[in-house]
Amino acid sequence: MIRPVILSGGEGKRLWPLSRPERPKQFLALTGGATLLQQTVRRLVDPALFEAPIIIGGAGQRFLIAEQLRAAGITARRIVLEPAPRNTAPALAVGALLAIADDPDALILSVHADWSIPDPAAFRATVALGLEAAAAGSVVLFGVRPTFPATGYGYIEPTAAKALARPVARFLEKPDAPTAEALIAAGCLWNSGIFLMSAERLVVELERHAPAVLEAARAAIACAEADHDFLRLDAEAFAAAPTISIDHAVMERTERAVVVAADFAWSDIGAWSAVWDGAEKDADGNVAVGQVVLDAAHGSFVYAEGVRVAVHGVSDLVVVATRDRVLVTSRSGDQAVRRLGERAEALPDP
Predict the structure, then answer these.
(1) Phi/psi at 183 (nearest 5 deg)?
(2) Most CB contacts within 10 A, which of 115, 146, 183, 213?
(3) Could you give the CA distance from residue 140 to residue 192 in angstroms, rounded to a whole number?
(4) Neighbours of 332 (CB within 10 A)
(5) Cα–Cα distance between 92 and 109 in angstroms, integer?
(6) Between helices 62-72 and 36-43, what is the axis angle to 10°?
(7) Which residue, among 269, 289, 233, 192, has the nearest Cα to 24 in the 3D structure?
(8) DSSP β-bridge partners for residue 232
(9) One domain for residues 67 and 122
(10) Domain count along the chain
(11) Do 94 and 9 reside in the same domain of the chain?
(12) Domain enclosing residue 321, as ranges
């Protein structure tokens, strides 16, 4: 049995103005009627494979997480509240320690709450392919077969071994377009950020490669406060943890990393163009959400929340309008949204 650890602490700044600190993207219904968090938890409902998940999110997300779980009719094993963001390594250290407290032999599956995987059955089948290697002590990563030369994703280069779980030769971060094309031609995979291992294996790897992370996680749990359905990590202890991703802390350093090619479609929904790409489009390639009027528009994404939006004579645009904020950008320029949103939020109130 696998204990999923769902990371829900992200802010989704590249999906401004809809995703904001008070309601990050994992709590939005961007790819269907359910929110990304609800889709993630439902994907992990399989009593033959998964235990109830541990969900780790920011203290300010407390009620959002609880309300969305109740709305989906799903119960978590624990909801853990981080007093401050420290990236993924400290959060997963906490998840591993809590899983061991439940079961010393626990396997953990690390997943993010804000990613889209349209085929839950294919996801579960692929995860099952990594069970044997994880139980044998490997750190199993799931690499997605690329569908285009993405420059915003990391890549995994497997060795040439003829095995289901192949040792990792190297990791490559966000290459330029020509390099991405060469990596795909060489058989490299997108790094999905989803991995499976025993909780004890993660603890051992952290002890070796990032002991300060593990020490802070242990202290934060030891002094944590139970609050109804939540576990509040101790603020002072958790603040001592280095701010570091699990990739930099463990994955790029361990000698036990293997990769299983994923048989499911995956997107990190990291930009508005990704939302457009995964949505159903009209005959002109447009996606319209909310009270939207389109006229002579092509290949555009238009989202209206609480306002009416009319668009005429444009192509390949992203328009996102809420009651108090509006974003207009080209689809190809949506990687600038994070910076634009930060600048816009710094403006004085009108």
Answers:
(1) -65, -40
(2) 213
(3) 12
(4) 9
(5) 10
(6) 60
(7) 269
(8) 81, 225
(9) yes
(10) 2
(11) yes
(12) 272-345
Residues 291 and 230 in one domain: no
Q: Are residues 156 and 298 in the same domain?
A: no
d(CA 26, CA 89): 19
The answer, as to whether pTM is greater than 0.90, is yes
What is the pLDDT at residue 308? 98
Residue that terminates a domain, selected from 232, 262, 292: 262
d(CA 250, CA 78): 24
Q: How is residue 333 annotated by DSSP?
A: G
Same domain, 196 and 223: yes
Residue with structure tokens 């990596």? 183
The tokens describing 253, both together, are 């350093």
Over the stretch 238-252, which tens digit does the pLDDT of each residue have? 999 999 999 999 999
What is the rounded (10 degree) CA torsion for 333, 337, 343, 347?
110
DSSP string, 205-250: HHHHH-HHHHHHHHHHHHT-EEETTEEE--HHHHHTS----HIIII
Nearest to residue 26, comparing CAs of 14, 13, 17, 35?
A: 35
CA distance linking residue 311 with residue 156, whole number of Å: 41
- C-alpha distances (whole Å) from 61 to each of 70, 82, 109, 148, 211 are 14, 10, 22, 34, 28
Q: Is the pLDDT of residue 263 over 90?
A: no
Question: pLDDT tens digits for 93-147?
Answer: 999 999 999 999 999 999 999 999 999 999 999 999 999 999 999 999 999 999 9
Predicted confidence (pLDDT) per residue in 19-57, tens digit: 998 899 999 998 878 999 999 999 999 999 999 999 999
81 has which bridge partners? 57, 232
